[in-house]
Amino acid sequence: MPVNFAMQIVTSHKNTDFDGLASIIGITILYPDTLGVVPATVNNNVEKFLSTHKTAFNIVLPGEFNHEQVTRLTVVDTDQWRRLDRMDKLRGRDDLEIHIWDHHHGGDIEADWKCQEQIGATVTLIVREMKKRGLCLNALDSTILLLGLYEDTGHLTYRSTTAEDAYAAGWLLENGADLNVVSAFLNPPYEEVQREILFAMMHDTRRLNINNRAIGLNLINLDQKVKDLAVIVGNYRKIANLDAVFITFVIDEKRSLVIGRSGTDMVDAGAVMKELGGGGHPGAASATVKSDRFTAAELQDEIIRLLHDQQKEGIKIADIMSFPVTRVSPSATMREVQKIMASQKISGVLVTDDEEIMGIVVLWDFKKIRQKRQWDMNVKAFMSRKVVSIKPDALPVQAAELMTKNDIGHLPVVHDGELIGIVTRTDILTYLYGILPD
Hints:
Low-confidence stretches: none
Number of helices: 14
Strand order of the largest sheet: 3-2-1-4-5-6
CATH topology of the largest domain: inorganic pyrophosphatase (n-terminal core)
CATH class of the largest domain: Alpha Beta
CATH architecture of the largest domain: Alpha-Beta Complex
Largest sheet: 6 strands, parallel
Structural class: alpha/beta
């Protein structure tokens, strides 16, 4: 029978994952008068957890309370009305107070108060408040919160993970979180149908090179409901040694489910899924797409287009390169080059003959000089002829890879055969990490 008194509730998105469930439970701990409302549809591993743990928490289903009695709605792990389960009756009410705890942005829920930051997991934001209040948790509460944190950060490996996520995990472990339970629910054993799908993906993957990254695309027709598809896709990406994968599962003639997993900064799975009407994080995301919008085959073409668009929107080498480029002729002496580099405080100069790049001289090359007379020798006797160039529309990560592969610290930037700039290891480190090398 529905509860009939003034109340505060907290809920999360449909197909609730552990971050959503844990955040619901976390809010009921922070605000004991709040009732947790778990959507009717939850992920399979969450369903297994609830089958044995549901009675331990103050939670109900969407039909087990009176919407008219709600005075405060707290939404966790989403900020979109359409992702909530049977909460339409609350939308548009002037007398309803709305709070949001979330690590996503861009939704349509207008809140009176929010804690919304780019961080690995919503749980981390809630743990921050628990630590601030000096709370101590029991082992069960700590374990469910750690489940949510680990799932949304890929065991603290997704690139969206922050230092605070790691500190939050440590605090939960201090409060008794059980890693054996966490491992059991986040790494469930495969059933026969799941193994068949994994093998099908491995057998028939469409491999593409986009933005210098190995991308896997696949289309799987499902003839039955399959559990833990997201887990299968995540493991498949690692097994296939792909930078990112986007698997389209045809559920029925009306809709398809796309699951994306990425292990590189150059592919944002969450941004791709958001364009398809879904959501998620840079490393893990999904979207349910109706067939009247895209057929399964069209979906794959759209994903490819969106991936190419990501490169167009990012920071390019042209944005961080230095120009004009200091250059010398092959007849310049090492003494002259040393004075130029010292006066300009640079670590390398290009050796050019007209517009042709002949070589490069860097600080290391001065260590080759062992006799005084060598200071007056031409640079072509000491320069490195192994010069690797890069295009201005390349990405900084691509430059870092070229430097690592060729063991060099300078890349001339060439456009249509013309030298227009140079990018150094220092430029790349400054961009990627915001630090300078020692």
